[in-house]
UniProtKB/TrEMBL annotation:
Family: Belongs to the TonB-dependent receptor family.
Protein name, as recorded: TonB-dependent receptor
SUPFAM superfamilies: Porins
A cellular component annotation (GO) from this entry: cell outer membrane
Keyword rRNA-binding annotated: no
Domain of life: Bacteria
Signal sequence segment: 1-31
Organism: Shewanella holmiensis
TonB-dependent receptor-like beta-barrel domain sequence ranges: 354-817
Amino acid sequence: MSQRTLLSTSIKTALFASIAVSSSVSISAYAAEETAKVERIEVTGSRIQRQDMETASPVTVIDAAAIKAEGFTSVDELLQAQTSMAGAAVGSSTNNGADGVAQVDLRGMGSQRTLVLLNGRRMVNSGSGADSAVDLNAIPVAMIARVEILKDGASAVYGSDAIAGVVNIITKKDFEGFQFDVQGGMTDKSDGENGEISALYGMNTNSGNYTFGVAYSKREGVIQSDRDWTDPGYSSFIPTGSLGGKVINDQGEWVNRDSGYDYTQDSFYQTPNERTSVFANMVQEINDDIVFTGDFLYTKRKSSQQMSAQPADIMLNVCGDANTIPGEPCITLDDAMIKGGIAADDTGRVNYRRRTTDVGPRIYSQDTDTYRLSAGLAGTLDVHTGFNWDASYTYGNNKAKTQVDNSINATKMEASVYANQGAWFSGDPLNQAIIDDISFTEQNSGGNEQHTFSAGLNGELFDLDAGAVAFAIGAEYRYESGYYTPDQVIQDGDSTAAQQDATDGDYNVLSIFQEVSVPFTDKLTGEFALRYDDYSTFGKATTWKVGLTYEATDDLMLRGVAATGFRAPSISELYGGDTGSFDYLTDPLGHEQDPQILVRYTSDDDLQAEESESLTAGLVYSPSAIEGLSLTLDYWSFKVTNAITRLDVQSGINACLIGNDNTACETFGIDPTAGAAKFDNLTSSLTNVGSQDTSGIDFNLAYTFEGLGLDWKISNDTTYLLNFEQDNEDYTGTIDGNFGAYAKVRNNFSIQASQGDWSVMYFNRYIGEMDDHYTDYDDSGNPVAALAKADAVLYHNISGTYHINDDMTIIAGVKNLTDEEPSRVSNGSDGGTVPEVYDVIGRQYYAGFSMKF
């Protein structure tokens, strides 16, 4: 054994001292590369290089073959299909407000609480600007070798954002030759077409490997009204316009509005998307002890969404009313209007609403560019049994241009109504001159930038009777900035859309981290991690993690992890400009004409970091009596305190107007005495008063065997949600258009049979029944709490793979074979359901071809 050096002695002393003082610890996760090698590698969730695959933390691994077989064409699609996901992460089915981004929501705790890594290093937050999470559209499926989902808190290793867990996307590397892939699909209604073409080229040299790739994908839209199960939408904003809630009929009489506008004919269930990506990986040995590695990714995304024509809602002064200021422009109420019951309110005004179909539907479009460049040096030191060192720099940049065609300038519209009262109130279509005057194209810009410098050292300190004590230490500096600049018309508040201010800010953080793995006995191993972060914004954070694995028998391993975590407030949370949001809310007094009510969202530059505690405990069982069978069972629990949150506005409205809670009225800016104007200042502020408390059980079964002359693979994943509470509201087993789904049971099952060159797979996905809480009204018109049920759904999928020869493979499959309809949700976000949770597209066919040279 090599003699101990001063360096190794110092490191050992520092590590043991930190463990004694803070009881802190590390995590581990998955293990080997695609080709099994008896060597030490770094695994997701730990910086200690190791040989073994079984670790204290539960990890799900999805490889490229599974991704291709199940027909996934985007990273968010494959992630949201996992049982460990909940809530309602935005993606291809989000038509309103997401700007085309796609995110992951592990445990339903929010996309901002799941850390996304690319090859073990952070991805830049991306989207339309000043974003709080990674846009998964930036990562093409074609470049993925596997995806590792660490279902455990990992702040002690990776820092902020890893409260709920980590998604580590490993790209293809060490490739030699040329590979061409094409895949496409469409629904059985002949819409929603999607396809991807990619090429991969790699070459080996005497001292390295260079792998290059390019991918192009395109996805077409699906209109909501093209699905038979979609109920027609109903909006109080109609194309002919309404004045004081009245409409003019063919006889020139003003009568109560008795019809609404069906917005489903204009809105998407699946949003169009077009992406072009270029990526590269390199490994180059500089000498026997030093290796240079690098990876590059560039993705251009062009996406769009479409919604019904802009709903214009303005208040007009009434001429002659005592409350109208002399000299102000005003409208004249003629005899027919007065006879119909149209009158000024107590401010001297009357409400005018119009669906501006004359201008056209709102078409949202995004053009984003995301770059990511990472380079590093790694080597060994002739210290003790050999230490490994690494140093890296990672740069990320995201720029976005977004626009909204057929937007309406409310200021110009109001002036036009005053000047052209007859044209606006006649119920007839508007002329082109008026259309050109009031409409404009909204243009916004935004971006994100990230710089990360990191260095580390790992190896073995000394030997115990049960094995070597391993360690990892390191430091990291990270700089983040972001901005979002809305169109000037939006900033000035002149649009019929909600007013929004600009966002601009930055911060930096310096971090020091350490881990140690101690084999206490041949059967018991402890893993410990400690991390210190110093932010330029809120200050300092210290997190720890302790994990234990115990090999009770040759067949049974017990494991458990306890950890603390944190999430730093994002740029948009700290420096975000005030913005309006039309949320789906219910007025319990029944005065609001529409289910969407304007809420003013505000930020706070004094926000503190969120804090969390997590616990996982379970077992891994591989019975020697049944070869090929393995089982895992894990209990998990996460508690977040000091959470950055917007309180539940609906609960605040109910507390104020039904419960007469003055504090709730003040918190949300509600004036219960103001009649129809009581929501004019409805506000939702970010605060550190939120909380989350969730727990559940994960079960996995994997079984490979031979039978009937075939090779079989069976897999089953189950997540049983025991509890999910947020801000003292219990969402366990419920679904809602604003918060998404928290089903008690989710299950994925697959069975594959193969022989020689072919294989066939059947897999299904189950989402359990959920409670659907909503507000109803009794015979007297009084609001009452009501409960419906969102039915359980079971989706069936089949696929087949055939290897024509060693170089050519074809894949074909059907998703949602039985064309299951989504469950109805009374407060759904679109089409009477929640598209982020259920399949709203229907039966889809797909096929692919791969060729290697």
